[in-house]
Amino acid sequence: MTADEQFVAPLFAGVDVGGTNVKVGLVDNQGKIVADTKFPTLPNEPPDVAISQVREELNALIETAGFQWSDVVAAGLGTPGPMDIHRGVILTPTNLPGWHHYPIQGRLADVLGKPVTYANDAGAAAFGEFWVGGGQNYSSMVMITLGTGVGGGIIIDDISVDGANSHGAEIGHIVIDTRSDARICGCGQAGHLEAYSSAMALVERTKEAMGNPDAGTVLRDLIGETSPLSALMVATAAEEGDPLAVKLVSETAVYLGRGIAQLAHLIDPAVFILGGAMNFGGAASPLGVKFLNEVKTEVRRLVFPVLGERLVLNFAKLGSEAGFVGAAGLARSQYNRTP
Length: 339
Ligand SMILES: [Zn+2]
Prior knowledge:
Helix content is 39%, strand content 19%. By secondary structure, the protein is an alpha/beta fold. The protein has 2 domains: 11-131 and 320-337, ATPase, nucleotide binding domain (Nucleotidyltransferase, domain 5), CATH 3.30.420; 135-315, ATPase, nucleotide binding domain (Nucleotidyltransferase, domain 5). A hairpin with a 2-residue loop joins strand 9 and strand 10. Helix 1 (48-65) runs parallel beside helix 2 (104-112), helix 3 (121-132) crosses helix 11 (322-337) and helix 5 (199-210) crosses helix 8 (243-267). It binds zinc ion. The site of zinc ion (ZN) has 6 residues, from loops.
């Protein structure tokens, strides 16, 4: 490499395909971001256009940063599921109707002329946290991502657990409620964690709770024609001490704790990381800290004492760059394993 000494060779490219943007980054051998950019996803267009643009954006990033194309030895790619990771095919993601059944891994590898490692977007983000974020210095990690849905990633000794059918870390769909009237998940099945702990679930549970006329809350006054109820609205009301909002956030913590308790017994990871947009302000906010403590309390109530005593549960450290950094990190792991 000829560019700045501050980066450690070789470089890896990371590509994170989302419903809104495709993020592209160059990452060095220690997980440091060299350069990154993003461009809008065209969800209804054939993905060949986006794949070509990835190559162009990478060319520009490499040139601007003062490197050569040969300094990049491999690339990682994360996309929304469902997908067939082993065959490298994106299947039927709801947000990307034009991309269905596209052999994305092979096409990207052809266009880049580099080996490409393929991962679920949540798995890639988890790997980013494991490599250089909240999971750094731990041998194993489970990440739970709370957003519109609930996603996750399981990393054990540098390996992302994808499973035989590419559904190995579907943490949002573990069953936490087997009652006949359990809530229905976004996937259509009943009682899944996502149906209780996602942002969408929080909104649904809040609407139901507001249906009780005795439940006093400022939320009724905040909702308008142009401002429908959102998880952020509930979080803000809870921060300001609104009793109903506080109760709903605490219930979210309890549901999440039930899911994590199962994962603790199943995997016993060295660290659990909570990522995603719905973090109630994270470690910097009293509400975020309270939420985390309530999750821990519920986990400890349900697990073996030793697992409760040694429970490590923290918020994620990386922001929206976790996906492409983790994709690059997965490419690096694969590169280092290849003789
Ligand atoms: Zn589900």
